[in-house]
Write a structure and sequence with these properties.
By secondary structure, this protein is an alpha+beta fold. It is built from four helices and four strands; from the N terminus they run ααβαβββα. The protein has helices at residues 6-10, 15-52, 60-64, 131-144; strands spanning 56-57, 74-83, 94-102, 108-114.
Length: 158
Amino acid sequence: QKSSSRYQRQMGKSSHSQRSNTTEEDERVSLLHKKLELKRRKQQQGDELDERFGYAKYNYKSVLEGEEKSRRGWIFNIMPTTVPPEEGTSTTEQSALNLYFLTSTGTTFKSTILHAPYFYLLSSSPSVSSPHYQETVISTLLRAYEGSGLKSVKVAYL
């Protein structure tokens, strides 16, 4: 094996540091996949538990594809949840809501819909109305939450 020069070692370019960086990255990716798999299993267990209590999962996408007929009911409960990414897609979870419905015949069902997450910021500073300040806050938020599903930031005044 070829030894690294002193300069390469000082600058972190040695073959050992490259191997350790690759190993660390592989470990990080492996840990991420394990966490996603655990979340998928927990979600599946939650869906199975809901079904045992009479809340069969209703997939509205199958209605659009003509596989299932539409259902009508009244929402009586809403729970926030996340949807793990599909196998082979990105590693970003999506925010969603579990909607629990009661039909006119007394049966129940559950449907999960995706939604864009949001939060509100309120500042007591009068400088908030400054366009430069707003642009700075918006760009900082978009950078900080890049890859998390945040697509836009809207400014509203009270």
